[in-house]
Design brief:
By secondary structure, the chain is α+β, with helices and mostly antiparallel strands. Helix content is 30%, strand content 30%. The protein has a five-stranded antiparallel sheet. Helix 2 packs antiparallel against helix 3.
Length: 213
């Protein structure tokens, strides 16, 4: 936002991480709250598309502002890329940072517009065309979906608890006798054999279930 007395040239430089996919065909511009055709304002554009896990999106938009413009809004739609578990930042719940945009503004004659357009298309830089006033915008903190890293731990705890309760109930049912009288030696051997058979059968079922998954 800002006033543009007598008109002028404004160039916006954007750098967006590859994890936030920008759809450039959704570019919209508005002057003083009224949407206008983007092509009527653009005099130069340079875009370096993002490549997943290599480099971010780099975009330069140069606009010819009308003399009566006070605020100019630029909007683009984005979508979130799928991230692997190891690609999330250490504090994933905080969100992902988007670098602040840079705004260059200068007064320029109409004869220099063609030179600026060619330079922006070729290099994405406007530093050598005219002396500009540079302003840094505000960074953006974007909330991203985060993985539930505690889920495997919860599953392991639940499975272990269920198996322990089941085994304890079976073992108690097998070794408990009527009353508190000590079991005879031969009966103890038979009970131990039954416990071993139950454990082996349970292990076989678990292995079969794991292979089926």
């Amino acid at each position: 936002p800002g006033s543009a007395p007598g008109g002028g040239l404004a160039c916006v430089e954007l750098t967006v991480p590859w994890s936030m996919r920008v759809w450039t065909h959704t570019l919209r511009m508005a002057i003083d709250g009224k949407e206008v055709d983007a092509d009527s304002l653009l005099v130069g554009q340079h875009t370096r598309p993002a490549v997943d896990r290599r480099h971010p999106l780099e975009m330069v938009l140069c606009l010819r502002l009308p003399p009566t413009a006070h605020t100019v809004s630029i909007s683009l739609r984005i979508s979130r890329a799928f991230l692997l578990l190891v690609e999330h930042p250490p504090d994933a719940h905080r969100g992902a940072d988007v670098p602040a945009p840079r705004l260059h503004y200068c007064h320029q004659s109409g004869s220099e517009t063609g030179d600026l357009s060619r330079l922006v298309h070729a290099t994405g830089s406007t530093d050598t065309v005219c002396s500009m006033q540079q302003v840094l915008g505000k960074g953006l903190l974007l909330q991203m979906p985060t993985p539930d890293v505690a889920m495997p731990y919860n599953v392991i705890c639940l499975t272990s608890t269920v198996l322990a309760v089941y085994f304890g109930a079976c073992f108690a049912a097998l070794v408990s006798g009527s009353g508190n009288l000590p079991l005879e030696k031969q009966n103890r051997k038979a009970l131990v054999a039954r416990v071993v058979a139950v454990v082996v059968a349970l292990r076989s079922k678990i292995q079969a279930w794991a292979k089926g998954k």
